[in-house]
Amino acid sequence: MGKEFRYVGKPTPRIDGKAIVTGSAEYANDIHMHGMLYGRIKMSPHPHAMIKKIDVSKALELPGVRTILTYENVFDWITGMPAQKRILDRHVRFVGDPVALIAATSNRTAEEAADLIEVEYEVLPAVHDLDEAIADGAPQLYEQFPGNIIERGCPPFGPKALQELVMGDTKKGFEECAVVVEGTSRYETISNPLPAESPGLVAWWDGPSQCSMKGSFQSPNIQKMIMQLAMPGVTVRVISANVGGSFGSKNTVPMEGLYCAALAKATGRPVKLVISKEAHLSTYMLRLGSRLTAKVGLLADGTVHAYEGTWLVGSGVHSDFGQGQIANGLGRAMLLLNKCKHWNYQPHLVATNRCRSGGIRGFGGQESYASLVPVLSMAMAKMNLDPVDFFKKNMCDINGGYYWVEGHWWENHFLSYNDVMDHAAEHFGWKDKFPGWLKPYKTVGSKQYGAGCCVHGSADCGMLHGEAFVKLDGWGTANINVCIAESGMGQRSAVVKMAAEILNLPLDKVTISTPDSQDNPWDWGLAGSRGTLVYGRMVGDAARNARTQLLEGAAAILHCPAEMLDTRDGIIFMKDNPEVALPWIAVLGPMNTITGHGVFEMDHSKPCFMIAFVEVEVDTDTGDVRIVRIVEGTDVGQVIDPYSLKMQLEGGLGSCGSDSAINEEMILDEKTGKFLTNNLVDFKWRVFPDLPTFETHIEETPNDLSAFGGIGVGEISGAPLPGAIIMAVSNAIGIQLMDYPLTPDHILKALGKAR
Fold it and tell me: What positions does the domain Aldehyde oxidase/xanthine dehydrogenase a/b hammerhead occupy (predicted)?
């Protein structure tokens, strides 16, 4: 443990805790405005079709209907990255693709109107499989993307955004290797993170070119950016209500934002759109699909020396940020195989006839690692390498270099995670649980037990620019001006704690601004585990700057150097004579303020890592996989709040993490293009009694990265689990598995017991 703090490192109540438990916290469904209308979407029942005719006359006659938009009268707005998806189109490309938007005086009226709209379709052939989508003669989703391969490029990450890894000479590299393996792995569960609160918002227009929206946006400024790119000439203001759960899926709500904005513009009234739970399951954003065919070469000492891979990334009908996620997956692969000298890693973002993909927790990196680990396991097994030793040897350590998402070269001069990996392995009992490759460590009747591990690294914790202000007044209070939404992690509370610690104020004397893109300085938002480090740096610097100004003002009054002064609870005093003191109001007066400014500039040289160990039980008679125990280990620099850290780690355990390996799966009927798991019975969730024993090994290494040296773990907490689980299950049954999810039918098929 490091320095003893007043608040940092200790559990404190969340600033929004009372509002949440008493029901006064505002979520998207709670937003109401005077004259507000309700939006509804009429959806295509076909996965691929052209609209021949659409008749809205009966629906418009329904009392309470204010407008209906179709491809014939809607605004010419287009989104996606690159821009590809029109707000409404004659060409519909998945079951659930909007064909009409309705605004009415009630939800029921809007729903009745949707049922009265008559549509005649010309049904087209659909394609769902990635290999089939890029094959000659496949149905084409977009004229501008031949072969259904979406063009490369990610403008928000700049002109050099990482879109492939080509280094060295792979032919020569493989010739130098002691072992070369090839394999294909599929992480195509396209799981739905499914937070309890459905995405929703209210949109309104303050003028012909000024649109405002308030709703469940995890990152208000990214939503603003996407909306303004889609609506040229429009200034967009984005305000976040409480997001509730997100798991990345509500980082932005772009399509729904456009639907709502269009209806509000057409009616001249505020319009509210909250999608139903069924639509949330079957038509909203899913995880990217991942199919990797790779060739990996290892030197005699176990170092990965050469790598070739073709990575097909399934975007569905389009992707909000697919090429950015690919850039992230490539960068994270370099962190994992950091000693590799020869690369030819070619990704392709592929369009298919299902709903869109987006920035689900892991943001391309989880898809990359989950697909890569089974191929690496083949190589490790061939050389009889211990996985912990393999990951330590190959992952990025001190002085290791790598390309990151914007295409720049970075070097890690921050921290080695080797010790924490060893300590976590000891905590788990790895040496006793890993008898060798494809061997169970225990068998009890039909049940066999195996262990696996995986590392996940990310340099997103230093992602992009941000700013913050901290304002002090004479009444001994402080306000933080920064654009942080509350999406369940308690980040707003953590920032208040850090500012209160620096200013030595009671927690209830520090407030934080509403997450509003108009009233706050720019910040990218809560993504990529950047919150703790980035907000800690810029809010910490702003608070320190304000404190310095305050003490300098007091020093002028007390006729002493500012270094001789300190402050606590709104009182400034002499360090060596605390009886000489004055309140803040004596420095500022009742009507003046002091404002400190803090800035964070992009810095990807401080990667964070998590190692996960998993113990599984596999029933070889039924194929059932049960996760018995999970141990995760990392170094967080400095714990800001132990309860929030525990929540982050345990929250990453299930949704989007371990469950995407064993049971979370959206099953698509390729004949109809409809999901068969569009309800909370068939989409498998584990309830609390089914969760495994979960333990953590957390270390703290002091650093100067931010105000207190805290490093985020939110995204990396769940990301290594799929790779660790498939390794553990493979070891339990003695067969190297390559594809997810590890459902009973998959296990029985591998064992030759499937009917």
Answer: 22-125
Where residue 633 sits, what CATH number does that domain have? 3.30.365.10
Query: What pLDDT, on a 0 to 100 scale, did the predictor assign at position 235?
Result: 97
Same domain, yes or no, for 457 and 321? yes
pTM: 0.95
Q: Are 69 and 99 in contact (CB under 8 A)?
A: no
- DSSP conformation class of 28: G
On whether both 550 and 590 belong to a single domain, the answer is: yes
* Tokens read off for 736: 């190297």
| Crossing angle of helices 365-383 and 721-733, rounded to 10° | 30
Q: Are 298 and 66 in contact (CB under 8 A)?
A: no
Same-domain pairing of 628 and 730: yes
Cα(202)–Cα(261) distance, integer angstroms: 8
Same domain, 482 and 494: yes
DSSP string, 545-586: HHHHHHHHHHHHHHTS-GGGEEEETTEEEETTEEEEEEEHHH
Q: Do residues 373 and 512 share a domain?
A: no
Are 204 and 59 contained in the same domain? yes
Tokens of 669: 């009927």
Residue 599 and residue 695: Cα distance in Å, rounded? 36
Contact 156, 324 (CB under 8 A): yes
Angle at 217 between CA 214 and CA 219, to 5 degrees: 125
- What one-letter code names the amino acid at 97? D
For 646, the domain range is 289-461+604-750
Answer with the one of 581, 600, 619 that is the final residue of a domain. Answer: 600
β pairing state of 210-215 and 442-444: unpaired
CA pair distance 266, 260, nearest whole angstrom: 10
CA distance 323 to 341: 24
CA–CA separation, 157 and 751 (whole Å): 45
Q: Does residue 218 lie within any of the structural domains?
A: yes
φ, ψ for residue 526 (rounded to 5)?
-85, 95
**Mean pLDDT for back-to-back runs of 10 residues, the chain (755 residues):** 82 92 92 96 97 97 98 94 90 97 97 97 97 96 95 87 96 98 92 84 96 95 93 96 87 93 98 93 91 98 97 91 92 96 97 91 89 97 98 95 94 91 97 97 97 95 90 97 89 95 97 95 85 92 97 96 96 95 95 95 91 97 96 94 88 77 89 90 80 92 88 88 97 97 95 79
What span, in angstroms and rounded, lies between the C-alpha atoms of 211 and 208?
8
Q: Are 421 and 476 contained in the same domain? A: no
Q: How far apart are CA 273 and CA 688, in angstroms?
A: 32
Q: Count structural domains, the chain.
A: 3
